[in-house]
Each structure stands twice: as structure tokens, then as C-alpha cells.
Amino acid sequence: MNYEMEIDITGINLIEFIKEIYRLSVPAGMGWLHFIEGELTDKEAKEILDIWKKDKQFALDMDYIGGRACKMIVFRKDRGGKGIFIHSP
């Protein structure tokens, strides 16, 4: 059975998306050792997004941020270079 899923998020503000994923995430496992209270600033979210700006496959790939399990992959899909999608394994 294939449980893979894609959600089209083309046009979404990725800065706000990153901040919301972070806000909703909680520390897990060893993440408690690195846990940082509070929310991400726009600048911090942009720094995360900028890591991926030249990547042709991924628009964003998050694992643990500030000890929080923010597990999220956003990839570019060849739809005229305009589509971005969340992929959940």
C-alpha cells in the first residue's frame, strides 16, 4: 500500500509557513537538549529558506530546528517552474 501524499502549496508565503511549522512543533527525543522557547522571527525563517533557494529539487527541507521536530519537505515540481508541494512519506 502506498501512503505517499503530495499537497500543492504553490503561492503560499514560505516564511509564514516555516514560522507556523516551528510554532506547532514540539521537542522530541534528544531535541529537548537543544530546545529554544519562543517563536522564529521573519529573519530566522528567511535564513532557513535561503539555504534552499538555489536547489533545483527542494524549496525547503526541515528536520530539527531549535530542538523541535519540524519534519517537513517542500519540493519543486516541474510544472513550468511554478509549483511547490509538500511531500509526506
Task: Write up this protein.
The chain has 89 residues and is an alpha+beta fold. It has one domain (5-88). The protein has two helices and four strands, in the order E-H-H-E-E-E. The protein has helices spanning 14-24, 42-50, and strands at 5-8, 58-65, 68-77, 83-88. The protein has a four-stranded antiparallel sheet with strand order 1-4-3-2, covered by helices on one side. Strand 2 and strand 3 form a beta hairpin. The radius of gyration is 14 Å and the shape is globular. The two termini are 12 Å apart. The relative contact order is 0.28. The model has no long low-confidence stretch (mean pLDDT 84).
Short description:
With 89 residues, the chain is α+β, with helices and mostly antiparallel strands.
**What gap, in angstroms, lies between the N and C termini?**
12 Å
Q: For the largest sheet, list the strands in their spatial order.
A: 1-4-3-2
How large, in whole angstroms, is the Cα Rg?
A: 14 Å
Tell me about the largest β-sheet.
Answer: 4 strands, antiparallel
Shape: globular
Q: Could you estimate the helical fraction of the residues in percent?
A: 10-25%
Beta content: 25-35%
How many individual domains?
Answer: 1
What structural class is derived from the secondary structure elements?
alpha+beta
The overall pLDDT average reads 84
Summarize this structure as a short list of keywords or feature phrases.
89 residues, 2 helices, alpha+beta, single chain
Which SSEs are present, and which pair or pack?
Blueprint: E1 5-8, H1 14-24, H2 42-50, E2 58-65, E3 68-77, E4 83-88
Antiparallel strand pairs: 1-4, 2-3, 3-4
